[in-house]
Amino acid sequence: LFFIYCCIERISWRLQKTKALLDHTNTLSLNLTELTDQQKEFQEVARKFAREEIVPAAPSYDKSGEYPFPLIKRAWELGLMNGHIPEDCGGMGLGIFDACLITEELAFGCTGVQTAIEANSLGQMPVIIAGNDAQKKKYLGRMTEEPLMCAYCVTEPGAGSDVAGIKTRAVKKGDEYVVNGQKMWITNGGKANWYFLLARTDPDPKCSASKAFTGFIVEADTPGVQPGRKELNMGQRCSDTRGITFEDVRIPKENVLIGEGAGFKIAMGAFDKTRPPVAAGATGLAQRALEEATKYALERKTFGKFIAEHQAVSFLLAEMAMKVELARMAYQRAAWEVDQGRRNTYYASIAKAYAGDIANQCATDAVQIFGGNGFNSEYPVEKLMRDAKIYQIYEGTAQIQRLIISREHLGKFKQ
Amino acid sequence: MSARVLVGVKRVIDYAVKIRVKPDRTGVVTDGVKHSMNPFCEIAVEEAVKLKEKKLVKEVVAVSCGPQQVQETIRTALAMGADRGIHVEVSGKDYETLGPLQVSKILAALAKKEQADLIILGKQAIDDDCNQTGQMTAALLDWPQGTFASEVNIEADKLKVVREIDGGLETIKINLPAVVTADLRLNTPRYATLPNIMKAKKKKIANVKPADLGVDVSSRLEVLKVDEPPQRQAGVKVETVHDLVGKLKEAGRI
């Protein structure tokens, strides 16, 4: 009798799990296997541009560190940039999903170029989500009229992950705010036409983060804005990264986003829309690593056969393929969720964390498959390893992502 | 200028794909294989759009013959700047046997129906390499032709065409209406930009059947078999010129 009782227990538990699973999959109507015709065409243009124009130029930009403005201009002409800008500002009002498809293709070509382009989206996102009509028309409109760059100016030398710890001060004086402070690691810092700036407007240390900061749009030629030297980084070397000093910079009150104290929420809100494309970029790099490694493995011979025919190598390739496919599905899910109008923080963090990690793993494995050649700068994979590292750092470190995911997960569980 | 240009575009297996012969040797594998616009047709579309930008022609109409999928190819032409499209529906067995003669009859009928002043085609398709459609279309219409064009200019109401021929370059002047076939160096086709891809969705594609144009698409040709090119045989290395001559004599080559 006891035995029968146990069986019934187990069966009913299993039925419950199955029902929960079915409920979950019934809510999923995202078709990951078939893109729309328009998405396929967009992807085609991005792929062609990346493979024919970015790939050949990337090694020399990596060596020289020169800003790839000709490539950025081309991408702008083809409509591959600024996809998020709403149609009434001259943009295409693309969803995050479509933008991610394009980003993955460009990143395949070179993540340095793609980051320079992506920094535009990051800088624009606070204006897109929180700007009033006048601000949107002025600052987004000009991006579609000429190939201009913008930047997201939040990180400081003393505060990266701890955004609430930033010290740049904005003091209201009449109809203006006077800003003093130091920002660091600002992508497009030296090339931007304007910045989204986060500064502390409430000096009271007891004031909560959700009220103490304000978001501003700052014209780069405002007196007192001093970009520092171009930083020499490990990878994505053609991307322009700088420190920026703000010395008595005066910002008109019309350039405040929403209002005083709203900045923190705006700055964080932008990430839900920009983390999926960053994950897509990391996936593009991983895809490049996989393709380069596969091509090489089918050409190089050792012990009488192509190295791809040795299981040690083919298993490496299989695991790389698994990671790439899953990273892609993760960013597509995160992008789709936010396009449906739902809060996607959980999925966006998972996608960014996972894609950043596997990009590094795949790049390392690609170098391994190339063997001695992989370590050498004449072959394309060592650059991938150097470029991949930053994906575990910027746009929320791997550790911060895990913090977010655990908080979201435990939050769901407690409900 | 009120000229209307008809541009033929063919959907072919993408140039980068490795072609495989079907096991039954009746043709090549097309299922699930990447297809795109024939590269010479891209050059033809680009030339037509350039003429429109120079205000030398008023309307560019893209035409393709085939099943539902050729609409993708027409859309690409629209995204490059063509104004509207015509999809001539040919499917199934008829599509498998569709060749230059039937297509040129269709194009000739359309040229009359649409009152086209100029037809621009690619010089040949990269799948069958026929290099016949342009020439046949001109003959059926009794129009002059400028084939293998590497440069096209409209001067007064005549067409100046620079042709790539074996001996070099030949420049001819022909009356309009005319047929031009595009060669490789005529231009570099533009990318379809993302905004143009979105605009192209609003452009119209008309559907037409060959019977509506009075064209019989049945083929007079029968494909007997399709084979891969013979496998390359290993060569033989020789030490001296003397040995080389000896081996060539053995093989009956000299």
UniProtKB/TrEMBL annotation, chain A:
Catalyzed reaction equations: octanoyl-CoA + oxidized [electron-transfer flavoprotein] + H(+) = (2E)-octenoyl-CoA + reduced [electron-transfer flavoprotein]; decanoyl-CoA + oxidized [electron-transfer flavoprotein] + H(+) = (2E)-decenoyl-CoA + reduced [electron-transfer flavoprotein]; a medium-chain 2,3-saturated fatty acyl-CoA + oxidized [electron-transfer flavoprotein] + H(+) = a medium-chain (2E)-enoyl-CoA + reduced [electron-transfer flavoprotein]; dodecanoyl-CoA + oxidized [electron-transfer flavoprotein] + H(+) = (2E)-dodecenoyl-CoA + reduced [electron-transfer flavoprotein]
Compartment(s) where it occurs, according to its Swiss-Prot or TrEMBL record: Mitochondrion matrix
InterPro entries reported in the protein's UniProt record: Acyl-CoA_dehydrogenase, Acyl-CoA_DH_CS, Acyl-CoA_Oxase/DH_mid-dom, Acyl-CoA_Oxase/DH_mid-dom_sf, AcylCo_DH-like_C, AcylCo_DH/oxidase_C, AcylCoA_DH/ox_N, AcylCoA_DH/ox_N_sf
Active site: E395 (proton acceptor)
Origin: domain of life: Eukaryota
EC assignment: 1.3.8.7
Domain Acyl-CoA oxidase/dehydrogenase middle as annotated: residue spans: 151-249
Class of enzymatic activity (EC top level): oxidoreductase
Molecular function per GO: flavin adenine dinucleotide binding; medium-chain fatty acyl-CoA dehydrogenase activity
One of the protein's GO biological processes: medium-chain fatty acid catabolic process
Pathways involved: Lipid metabolism; mitochondrial fatty acid beta-oxidation
Annotated Acyl-CoA dehydrogenase/oxidase C-terminal domain residues: 261-408
Domain Acyl-CoA dehydrogenase/oxidase N-terminal: 36-145
Database matches in Pfam families: Acyl-CoA_dh_1, Acyl-CoA_dh_M, Acyl-CoA_dh_N
Keyword vocabulary terms for this entry: FAD, Fatty acid metabolism, Flavoprotein, Lipid metabolism, Mitochondrion, Oxidoreductase, Phosphoprotein, Transit peptide
Gene3D superfamilies: Acyl-CoA dehydrogenase/oxidase, N-terminal domain, Butyryl-CoA Dehydrogenase, subunit A, domain 2, Butyryl-CoA Dehydrogenase, subunit A, domain 3
Gene Ontology CC annotations of this record: mitochondrial matrix
Matching PROSITE patterns: ACYL_COA_DH_1, ACYL_COA_DH_2
Listed CDD domains: MCAD
Coiled coil: none
Binding, FAD: 152-161, 185-187, 300-302, 310-311, 368-372, 397-399
Chain's role: Medium-chain specific acyl-CoA dehydrogenase is one of the acyl-CoA dehydrogenases that catalyze the first step of mitochondrial fatty acid beta-oxidation, an aerobic process breaking down fatty acids into acetyl-CoA and allowing the production of energy from fats.
Protein name in the entry: Medium-chain specific acyl-CoA dehydrogenase, mitochondrial
From TrEMBL, chain B:
Protein name: Electron transfer flavoprotein subunit beta
Example of a GO MF term: electron transfer activity
Oligomer and partners: Heterodimer composed of ETFA and ETFB. Identified in a complex that contains ETFA, ETFB and ETFRF1. Interacts with ACADM. Heterodimer of an alpha and a beta subunit.
CDD domains tied to this protein: ETF_beta
Family per record: Belongs to the ETF beta-subunit/FixA family.
Gene3D superfamilies per UniProt: HUPs
Any GO BP annotation: fatty acid beta-oxidation using acyl-CoA dehydrogenase
Domain Electron transfer flavoprotein alpha/beta-subunit N-terminal: 25-217
Keyword Cell membrane in record: no
UniProt xrefs under PROSITE patterns: ETF_BETA (PS01065)
Function comment: Heterodimeric electron transfer flavoprotein that accepts electrons from several mitochondrial dehydrogenases, including acyl-CoA dehydrogenases, glutaryl-CoA and sarcosine dehydrogenase. It transfers the electrons to the main mitochondrial respiratory chain via ETF-ubiquinone oxidoreductase. Required for normal mitochondrial fatty acid oxidation and normal amino acid metabolism. ETFB binds an AMP molecule that probably has a purely structural role.
Annotated SMART domains: ETF
Entry GO terms, CC: electron transfer flavoprotein complex; mitochondrial matrix
Assigned keywords, A-Z: Electron transport, Mitochondrion, Transport
Annotated Pfam families: ETF
Compartments where found: Mitochondrion matrix
Highest taxon listed in the record's lineage: Eukaryota
